[in-house]
Amino acid sequence: MRECLSIHIGQAGSQIGNACWELFCLEHGIKPDGLISSEVNNESVASFDSFFSETSSGKYIPRTLFIDLEPIVIDEIRTGQYRQLFHPDQLISGKEDAANNFARGHYTVGKEFLDPVLDKIRKLVDQCSGLQGFLIFNSFGGGTGSGFSSLLMEKLSAEYSKKSKLEFAVYPSPKISSSVVEPYNSILTTHSTMEHADCVFMVDNEAMYDICSRNLSVDRPTFTNINRLIAQVFSSLTASLRFGGSLNVDLIEFQTNLVPFPSIHFPIASYSPIISADKAFHENYSVADITKAVFEPSNQMVKCDPRNGQFMSCCLLYRGDIPCKDISATLATMKTRRTIKFVDWSPTGFKVGLNYQPPTVVPGSDMAKVPRAACMLSNTTVIKEAWSRLDYKFDLLYAKRAFVHWYVGEGMEESEFGEAREGLAQLEKDYEEIENEVEELDDNNNNEEY
Prior knowledge:
- It is a single chain.
- This protein has helices at residues 10-28, 42-46, 72-79, 102-126, 143-159, 182-193, 205-215, 223-242, 251-258, 287-294, 324-335, 383-399, 404-408, 415-449; strands spanning 3-9, 52-54, 60-62, 64-68, 91-93, 131-139, 164-171, 199-204, 268-272, 311-320, 350-355, 372-380.
- It is of the alpha/beta class.
- The chain starts with a strand and ends with a helix.
């Protein structure tokens, strides 16, 4: 079997987790109490094992862990619709919050919390016959999401060094911010997990708000709207582990095809079609249309324009009733478009996954049910725009040493700020070098022609 463990950390991670497991239960026909719905066919049951474990009473329990240093968000799960789905030991909450402080999540409050969490992870790993890897959901800007995540990732790397560790991170938005010290937390966590995360899929709230208001006609999007969108992306990513298809993609294939160099592991996610029920009947869902749509900046889940950079690799994951020859024809057309530029040393560029299970939608959600969908994970040099925005905000704060005393007071060295900032400067430089190499190659080719 190819089991995956999902670990949801902090408020953002836990709320995304709630939306993901709600969707998975609907896709597999599992009721909120963990029992199988009578209408489910045997083929669907056979594919549960990668994400659910069966108990002796015939219940299916998610292979997951919810962790937060404060009880509020996890108490909502304990009393919510899916309270009977999760084992009580899978919901771990503390009494004291990380208070938006990386140092509290990493050094003081988080350190006391670490051993019980690792014990629970070991128990979950022991239930797996062939663990593929860990999927970690967190926010870069929060105290628990940044501090405790990086502490846990270090320990997972030490104990399970050969297993994949993929991170789904809520990245700070350009304009909307939920905390003042977000730039500090984000840069500290990115630097400390650089060597431990194999691949970090990024989404940002501002891009998600725009998608909800533009595509789904939701005037005031809530986190529930956003999390259900993220759940669809996560579902597409893991569909080939859970359902049959002619081109299956597992976790290790993502990092093999998306990460050209160890530090360049920050793909951007995009999804199509994102459409409301009232527009659904007026749309065409051809393979060409949904593929063009995932390359549009308006469907990207991080605020940056891919036309300003170059693609190093793209992973296209299709779901639903799609013939292979349509995909080949569409990709041949896409390669001829001027707006989609690949680096010269990546001649093939596309990794394709195809799954026969069409997307499922949560009843009462804004998204329409569609016969086919595409999810794209693209590793592109344009993400350096997002890093430079974040570094600029960090520099403004750190020039005055604003708020630094809160971090130092929790046992952190001030020199760690400088080290983290240098690490991110190096990351920006790595992306720039890739772009410059491409420009130099272009110049050389032009000179040879003359």
